[in-house]
Amino acid sequence: MSGGVDSSVTAYILKERGFEVEGLSFMLWEARDRGDFSACCSSEATAGASLTADILGIRHASVDVREAFIEKVIEPFVEAYTRGITPNPCILCNRHIKFPFLLSEAGKRGAEFIATGHYARIGRGAETGSPVTLPAEGIFLKKGVDQKKDQSYVLYVLNKDDLERIVLPLGDLKKPEVRQIARSLRLPAADRPESQEICFIGEGGYSRFIEDLSPSACNPGPIIDNSGKTVGTHKGIFCYTIGQRKGLGIYSPTPYYVTSIDTKRNTVFVGRQEEAMMKEVVVTDLNWLATPPATVFRASVKVRSMMADRPALVELTDDYARILFDEPLWAPAAGQSAVFYLGDAVLGGGIIK
């Protein structure tokens, strides 16, 4: 339980279904300059989760996983940006912290299942009306019904064998419905604002966060357009990501966008909007939740959490996947994840190389 509305309503729904429910909060990172509940890893949020548990009449506990969170999420996050790569810390957390520790704590407590407030669904067998036919593998991950809130993208890193033990009660609901349930129960989180995408980042943004932890990364260098002309000076390559427009400090009647980052030359390259489009990407570190239908197959592929999945041809080798999109895609960035879908079902995904 993060203290937010989603996990609060999840706990309520599970109790209503007859489960014996215990809320668990993780002590992850105490963000500076955060005096509210918007950071899901703050002490205020944990206190809010405990209060909600009291209202619902369920047990609540907190577990200190800060050491593991620093090692598996914070340090890789900082290191990636200093190499010109754009990581997704939510995926790192789900892969290394949230689900492994939830399953571990469930084992210690004799709990049969774990649950989270993610907007995604668990499918079983050949479901009637499914837009695709998956191999008969029993259980698989699906998109949530709320297209605006679907979080299946950040869950592709789950262990396939663990899907049997995961319950996702919000997958069939839309966010306004969840809010209404919370309001009807007068839960503290009913009208609490959404947590920001990176829960541990304070008001200064991710670049300030990295600057504080790694001052040596603040190494200025040239910003060069794709004709080879120097058009500005960057503040350190960690401050930039592919497709970025704002904060470049370049005065031009036509906007520039970051098109590539060269860490060896400490150089940021920019171009016009069409130059940030890409039709082909290579993906490594693959994780499969269902068996791919062939070594070459069609799927829809999502490359950022807030972007829609797009039709593409996927070609598999032993070590990577090559994705050829039907139409050029806006600014895929190395370090982000590409997730493969057949209809609503998640096949798997990997890291953009």
Question: What this model shows, in words?
Answer:
The protein has 353 residues and is an alpha+beta fold. It folds into three domains: 5-117 and 168-185, Rossmann fold; 219-271, SH3 type barrels (Roll), CATH 2.30.30.280; 277-352, Elongation Factor Tu (Ef-tu), domain 3 (Beta Barrel). Helices cover 24% and strands 27% of the residues. The chain is built from six helices and 16 strands. Strands 11-14-13-12-15-16 form a six-stranded antiparallel barrel. β15 and β16 form a beta hairpin. The two termini are 34 Å apart. Mean pLDDT is 90; it is low at 31-38.
SSE topology sketch:
Blueprint: H1 5-16, E1 22-27, H2 43-56, E2 59-64, H3 66-82, H4 89-109, E3 114-115, E4 120-124, E5 139-143, E6 166-167, H5 175-185, H6 205-213, E7 221-225, E8 230-234, E9 257-262, E10 267-271, E11 277-288, E12 296-302, E13 310-316, E14 321-330, E15 337-342, E16 345-352
Parallel strand pairs: 1-2, 3-6, 7-10
Antiparallel strand pairs: 4-5, 7-8, 9-10, 11-14, 11-16, 12-13, 12-15, 13-14, 15-16
Helix pairs in contact: 1-2, 1-5, 3-4
Task: Supply the key terms.
single chain, alpha+beta, Rossmann fold, Elongation Factor Tu (Ef-tu), domain 3, globular
Mean pLDDT: 90
CATH architectural group of the largest domain: 3-Layer(aba) Sandwich
Q: What is the string of SSEs from the N terminus onward?
A: HEHEHHEEEEHHEEEEEEEEEE
Number of helices: 6
How many structural domains does the protein architecture include? 3
| Beta-strand content estimate | 25-35%
Within the CATH hierarchy, at the fold level, what is the topology of the largest domain? Answer: Rossmann fold
User: Can you tell me the CATH superfamily of the largest domain?
Assistant: HUPs
Which descriptor suits the 3D outline? globular
| Counted beta strands | 16
Distance between the termini: 34 Å
Given as residue ranges, the uncertain stretches (5+ residues, pLDDT < 50) are 31-38
Determine the structural class based on helices, strands and strand pairing.
alpha+beta
- Multimeric status of the protein: single chain
Strand order of the largest sheet: 11-14-13-12-15-16
Cα Rg: 21 Å
